[in-house]
């Protein structure tokens, strides 16, 4: 295999220790919310951990909204694109998404494969990620252009890539999750484990648990396929509202931008820790991190 | 502070072939075969000769097949998992409840086909005859076509790039023996990419009667749906209206309604107003909908007294009205 320094992508990702791809065959099962939580939890793991989050869902980017970064734009520097930092001056949570490149939020990105491929290559080779402990990559649904491009362009750093599969418990979603698993096998990517999302909903009124999208399917699939089951997450309305939070009024937002920081996002981290999902997710992250391959050339 | 460099003349997205290089000017552009991006493209000579400014050879075949189809309806949403396939299925079942109508369902979600499971026909296969591929029939007047019927195993991933997907979609439109149909409902994957462009290109001449756009109430989904409506406008598909799915959940125990996905920015109703499209209605979340889909039975037939069934039927009536049927 070529040495990592050989390609622009390899050079850029030279100082990235672990790359975690979050995928699922099905849409709307919570890939972006899992990616966001993964990034937040990994960042919180130690006061020096640096995390990057790359959103390659080109036609439906959700990460900027979830991190409260709607309306930010990417700056060009002599050394490449500067990612948007969700935690302002601390700069330990770097984020990149096609959402930052759009002029208006309702603009559609109508691109066919080759153009998506080029954009992904640019995200990997032209963004100044710097040194990162983890790069979390959020993917669109399916197993198509974006996924193939990712794997192709990251071939020089293939040994550092691992994947997390997200599914919901119902049969229709599991079917697509199986396809995603077969993709990871075909491309020879290790799977850290499976997360079952939206498993059960607690009625805020009487506390009754309803299995909105059935339950247990993910665990069952993990057992059948010999995957590590990372855990199940119930529907958490607090988390939904937090990640969906209304953006600040435009003027206020501009002032905030001018001050060079994003206070909204700082609050996001604090508030995330208070949601019922946060402790559950911490356990998931621990399991996932334990399954990561040891970084090469280091202990 | 450059946000992104825009290619100077933005090509008509419909005229860029699926296997074109990154900055293809579009085959029917004045620059076809002559732009910088064309250097090295396998099709450069063909483009430069000017024949590509004519129509795709598959188009007359598609037009012929589609000449016996009265209404062509797209079900779209920028976001995944909001219930496009479920809605498509309900629409199919509701149309097919009228025995005098012939309905066809075409699933162009190639990487994640759910339609076969939702209709309970996942193990069926497509048969080829002299008049083309015959769709799988759920009942006499409801035919279904999906890539799910053609895979050797439901577990295998379909790892296809755009051009191959484009090829299959053109085959679905020109080679499937749909017969005379009153409605052809097309279920799409999330996003605004290859599949969508292909469908629109191939059906340009036959005309699409309209698109039903599905959303869920939270802003993360609305964002993607805004883009989808923008896409419809760019390519000239009329939007029949917007449906808000998973809107509110009625606890089976205490009968109180709560919002799982809070409409923090006004939900679908507000979006419809802002974008100037019709709001067709809201369907509450009912766990039995998902269950029916898993078991491949018709939710409308199984639970006719659920508030979700009433909502579905109202929406379907409004769609019929808007189409003038």
Automatic annotation (TrEMBL), chain A:
UniProt GO BP: iron-sulfur cluster assembly
Residues the entry annotates as binding [4Fe-4S] cluster: 203, 206
Cell compartments where the protein resides: Cytoplasm
Binding, ATP: 25-32
InterPro entries (UniProt xref): Mrp-like_CS, Mrp/NBP35_ATP-bd, NUBP2/Cfd1_eukaryotes, P-loop_NTPase, YlxH/NBP35
UniProtKB keywords: 4Fe-4S, ATP-binding, Cytoplasm, Iron, Iron-sulfur, Metal-binding, Nucleotide-binding
Predominant location: cytoplasm
Purpose of the protein: Component of the cytosolic iron-sulfur (Fe/S) protein assembly (CIA) machinery. Required for maturation of extramitochondrial Fe-S proteins. The NBP35-CFD1 heterotetramer forms a Fe-S scaffold complex, mediating the de novo assembly of an Fe-S cluster and its transfer to target apoproteins.
Stored PANTHER family: CYTOSOLIC FE-S CLUSTER ASSEMBLY FACTOR NUBP2, NUCLEOTIDE-BINDING PROTEIN NBP35 YEAST -RELATED
Alphabetized HAMAP family for the sequence: Mrp_NBP35, NUBP2
Entry's family note: Belongs to the Mrp/NBP35 ATP-binding proteins family. NUBP2/CFD1 subfamily.
Protein name as catalogued: Uncharacterized protein
Species the sequence originates in: Fomitopsis schrenkii
High-level lineage: Eukaryota, Fungi, Dikarya, Basidiomycota, Agaricomycotina
UniProtKB/TrEMBL annotation, chain B:
Coiled coil regions, renumbered to chain: none
Compartments where found: Cytoplasm; Nucleus
Pfam families: ParA
CDD domains for the chain: Mrp_NBP35 (cd02037)
Keyword Cell cycle in record: no
UniProt keyword list: 4Fe-4S, ATP-binding, Cytoplasm, Iron, Iron-sulfur, Metal-binding, Nucleotide-binding
Top-rank taxon: Eukaryota
Any one Gene Ontology molecular-function term assigned to this protein's record: ATP-dependent FeS chaperone activity
Chief location: cytoplasm
Binding sites annotated in the UniProt record for [4Fe-4S] cluster 1: 24, 38, 41, 47
Binding-site positions, ATP: 78-85
Gene Ontology CC entries for this record: cytosol; cytosolic [4Fe-4S] assembly scaffold complex; nucleus
Keyword NADP: no
Database matches in InterPro entries: Mrp-like_CS, Mrp/NBP35_ATP-bd, NUBP1/Nbp35, P-loop_NTPase, YlxH/NBP35
One GO term of the biological process aspect: iron-sulfur cluster assembly
Binding site for [4Fe-4S] cluster 2: 251, 254
Functional note: Component of the cytosolic iron-sulfur (Fe/S) protein assembly (CIA) machinery. Required for maturation of extramitochondrial Fe-S proteins. The NBP35-CFD1 heterotetramer forms a Fe-S scaffold complex, mediating the de novo assembly of an Fe-S cluster and its transfer to target apoproteins.
Family: Belongs to the Mrp/NBP35 ATP-binding proteins family. NUBP1/NBP35 subfamily.
Protein name (Swiss-Prot/TrEMBL): Uncharacterized protein
Organism (species): Fomitopsis schrenkii (Brown rot fungus)
Taxonomic lineage: Eukaryota, Fungi, Dikarya, Basidiomycota, Agaricomycotina
Gene: NBP35
């Amino acid at each position: 295999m070529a040495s990592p320094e050989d390609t622009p992508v390899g050079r850029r990702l030279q100082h990235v220790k672990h790359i975690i791809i979050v995928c699922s065959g099905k849409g709307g099962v919570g890939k972006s919310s899992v990616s966001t939580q993964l990034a937040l939890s990994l960042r919180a793991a130690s006061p020096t951990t640096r995390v990057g989050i790359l959103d390659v869902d080109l036609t439906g980017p959700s990460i900027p909204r979830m991190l409260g970064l709607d309306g930010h734009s990417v700056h060009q520097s002599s050394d490449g694109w500067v990612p948007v930092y969700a935690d302002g001056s601390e700069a330990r949570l770097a984020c990149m998404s096609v959402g930052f490149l759009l002029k208006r939020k309702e603009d559609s990105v109508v691109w066919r494969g080759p153009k998506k491929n080029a954009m992904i290559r640019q995200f990997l080779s032209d963004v100044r990620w710097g040194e990162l402990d983890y790069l979390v990559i959020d993917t669109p649904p399916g197993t198509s252009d974006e996924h193939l491009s990712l794997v192709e362009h990251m071939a020089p750093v293939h040994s550092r890539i691992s994947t997390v599969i997200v599914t919901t418990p119902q049969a229709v979603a599991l079917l697509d999750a199986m396809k995603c698993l077969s993709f990871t096998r075909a491309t020879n990517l290790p799977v850290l484990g499976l997360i079952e999302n939206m498993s059960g909903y607690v009625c805020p009124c009487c506390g009754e648990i309803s299995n909105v999208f059935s339950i247990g399917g993910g665990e069952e699939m993990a057992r059948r396929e010999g995957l590590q089951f990372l855990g199940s997450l119930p529907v958490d309305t607090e988390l939904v509202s937090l990640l969906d939070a209304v953006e600040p009024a435009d003027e206020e937002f501009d002032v905030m931008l001018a001050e060079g920081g994003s206070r909204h996002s700082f609050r996001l981290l604090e508030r995330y820790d208070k949601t019922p999902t946060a402790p559950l997710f911490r356990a998931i992250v621990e399991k996932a991190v334990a399954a990561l391959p040891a970084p090469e050339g280091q202990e | 502070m450059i946000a992104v460099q825009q290619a100077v003349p933005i090509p008509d997205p419909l005229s860029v072939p699926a296997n074109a290089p990154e900055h293809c000017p579009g085959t029917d552009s004045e620059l076809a075969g002559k732009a910088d991006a064309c250097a090295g493209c396998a099709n450069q000579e063909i483009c430069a000769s000017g024949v590509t400014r004519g129509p795709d050879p598959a188009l007359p075949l598609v037009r012929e097949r589609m000449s016996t189809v009265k209404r062509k309806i797209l079900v779209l949403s920028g976001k995944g998992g909001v219930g496009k396939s479920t809605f498509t299925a309900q629409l199919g079942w509701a149309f097919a409840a009228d025995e005098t109508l012939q309905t066809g369902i075409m699933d162009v979600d190639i990487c994640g086909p759910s339609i076969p499971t939702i209709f309970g026909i996942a193990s069926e296969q497509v048969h080829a005859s002299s008049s083309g591929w015959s769709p799988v029939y759920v009942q006499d007047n409801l035919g279904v076509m999906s890539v799910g019927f053609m895979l050797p195993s439901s577990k295998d991933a379909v790892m296809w790039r755009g051009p191959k997907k484009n090829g299959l979609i053109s085959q679905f439109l020109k080679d499937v023996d749909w017969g005379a149909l009153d409605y052809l409902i097309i279920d799409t994957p999330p996003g605004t990419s290859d599949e969508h462009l292909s469908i629109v290109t191939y059906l340009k001449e036959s005309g699409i009667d309209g698109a039903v756009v599905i959303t869920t109430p939270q802003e993360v989904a609305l964002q993607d749906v805004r883009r989808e409506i923008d896409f419809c406008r760019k390519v000239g598909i009329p939007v029949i209206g917007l449906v808000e799915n998973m809107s509110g959940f009625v606890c089976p125990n205490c009968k109180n309604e709560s919002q799982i996905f809070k409409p923090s920015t006004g939900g679908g109703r507000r979006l419809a107003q802002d974008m100037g499209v019709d709001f067709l209605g809201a369907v509450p979340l009912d766990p039995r909908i998902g269950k029916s889909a898993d078991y491949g039975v018709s939710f409308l037939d199984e639970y006719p007294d659920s508030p979700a069934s009433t909502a579905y039927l109202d929406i379907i009536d409004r769609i019929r009205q808007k189409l003038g049927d």
